[in-house]
Design brief:
globular; mainly beta; four-stranded antiparallel sheet; 11 strands
């Protein structure tokens, strides 16, 4: 059974930075994505990266502030979050897909999520 495990969440002040990680168990996926869900809101797309890191894509709300990267030798994907805002507060989930996509239903595997809280 494939396991995706997020880590690195926590509490940070507005304007600060945080990096969350997602490790997969013994497998490198073609495409990886980050999604987030704030209290009372639907889960939304944040960023995606292709297998070779040749393609990345970001939601408008995080473009210029967040950077997605991956290390296939470690089966790990990262999300570097800079200039954090209170509205970035959410549970952040990593997910894996076979094809290039920003659509949640095309991601087949999901982690348990890690909480990111940004204070004002």
């Amino acid at each position: 059974q494939v396991q995706l495990v997020e880590s690195g969440g926590g509490l940070v002040q507005a304007g600060g930075s945080l990096r969350v990680s997602c490790a997969s168990s013994g497998r490198t996926f073609n495409n990886m994505g980050w999604f987030r869900q704030a209290p009372g809101k639907e889960r939304e797309f944040v960023a995606a990266i292709s297998r070779s890191s040749s393609r990345t894509y970001y939601a408008d709300s995080v473009k210029g502030r967040f950077t997605i990267s991956r290390d296939n030798a470690k089966n790990t994907v990262y999300l570097q979050m800079n200039s954090l805002k209170p509205e970035d507060t959410a549970v952040y989930y990593c997910a894996a897909a076979s094809i290039w996509s920003t659509r949640q239903y095309q991601y087949n595997y999901w982690g348990q999520g890690t909480q990111v809280t940004v204070s004002s």
